[in-house]
Structures are given as C-alpha cells and as structure tokens.
Design brief:
Structural class: mainly alpha
Strand content: under 5%
Helix content: 25-40%
Mean pLDDT: 88
Distance between the termini: 38 Å
Number of helices: 2
C-alpha cells in the first residue's frame, strides 16, 4: 500500500510558484540576472525602509492578509 495515491490526486492543480521558479531558472541559464522572490527567503537583508514601513503598518493595526488575487 505504501506509495499509492488516490486517483483524485491527478486533479490537484500544480503549484504555480514552481512553474515560476522553472521559468526564472531557464532565464538564468540564458544569462539573465534574477532576484528570486518566488520561493524561500531572499539572500539579502530586508531594507531599513521596508522594516520601518512594516513596523508602522503593525502599529496601525494592519496585520491581516491582503485580498486573494
């Protein structure tokens, strides 16, 4: 039984972020410089202006998710 999946698993839509990653990697292979923001964490610190805006937003009660796309 191990390793068997329901037939319904085929109806699951692919995770679009992985498609974006693949496209970004293809561009990188062609020499395009890419700042990866699709998965994981950035490889640079959060800029001070962004940190300040986040603190201001939290203090103003803006702590909920944005609307879905």
């Amino acid at each position: 039984m191990a390793g068997r999946f329901s037939r319904r698993v085929g109806s699951i839509k692919p995770f679009i972020v992985m498609e974006l990653l693949a496209r970004a990697q293809a561009l990188e292979r062609k020499g395009t410089s890419i700042v990866h923001m699709e998965i994981g964490e950035p490889d640079f610190d959060t800029p001070d202006v962004v940190r300040a805006a986040a603190i201001k937003g939290c203090q103003a009660g803006k702590t909920h998710y944005t609307n879905s796309l």
